[in-house]
Amino acid sequence: MTVENTGVALARQASEALRRLDHQGRALRPDGVDRFSWSADVLDELARLAETLGAAVEHVSGETAPGAESHARALATAIVAHRNSLLRHRDGDHPFPRGDDPVVPPAIAPTSTGATEPITLAG
User: Fold this and answer.
1) Of 27 and 93, the one with more pLDDT
2) Rounded CA separation 41/15 (Å)
3) From CA 111, how far away is CA 3, in angstroms rounded?
4) Inter-residue contact 120 to 99 (CB < 8 Å)
5) Which one, 40, 75, 88, 106, has the greatest CB density within 10 A?
6) SS3 sequence, the chain?
7) Contact assessment for residue 75 and residue 93, using Cβ atoms and an 8 Å cutoff
8) Higher pLDDT, 23 or 96
9) What does the alpha-carbon distance between residue 117 and residue 101 come to, in Å, rounded to a whole number?
C-alpha cells in the first residue's frame, strides 16, 4: 500500500516545470513580446523561486538550514544581478556601468572562516 505524499507531488511538479523552462527556454516566449522584458519577468520569478526554495528546505525538514537558506538568497541575488545587467544591455548600455566591477554585493552565505565572498558574474 502506498501513501499519497502531497509534499513529494508538489516538489515534483515544481521540478518538472523548471525542467520544461530549462529545455524549452525562449521558445516559451509568446510572439510579439519583447525578449528582454520577457526574460526579465521570468528571471524575477526564478529569483523568487530561489528564495522560496531555501525557506521550503527549513519548513519541510522542520529544522533550521542556514546553509540552504543563505545559498538560496545568494542565488536569488545573482539572478537579480543578471536580470539587471540584461536590462541595461537592452538599453544599449554596457552590462556593467563603466568602472563598476561585475560583482554582486557580498554573498549572504558565509565562508568556512565566517567571511563573505562576492559572487562574480561572467561578463
Assistant:
1) 27
2) 19
3) 40
4) no
5) 75
6) CCCCCHHHHHHHHHHHHHHHHHHHHHHHCCCCCCHHHHHHHHHHHHHHHHHHHHHHHHHHHCCCCHHHHHHHHHHHHHHHHHHHHHHHHHCCCCCCCCCCCCEECCCCCECCCCCECCEECCC
7) no
8) 23
9) 14
> Would the pTM of this model clear 0.85, i.e. be above it?
no
Give the largest Cα separation in the chain, rounded. 63
Q: How far apart are CA 48 and CA 76, in angstroms?
A: 7
Model pLDDT, residue 109:
45
From CA 104, how far away is CA 8, in angstroms rounded?
A: 34
Q: Which three three-digit cell numbers place residue 6? A: 502531497
Please compute the mean of the pLDDT values over residues 13-40 and round it to a whole number: 92
Q: How far apart are CA 30 and CA 75, in angstroms?
A: 27
Torsion, Cα of 64, 65, 66, 67 (10° steps): 170
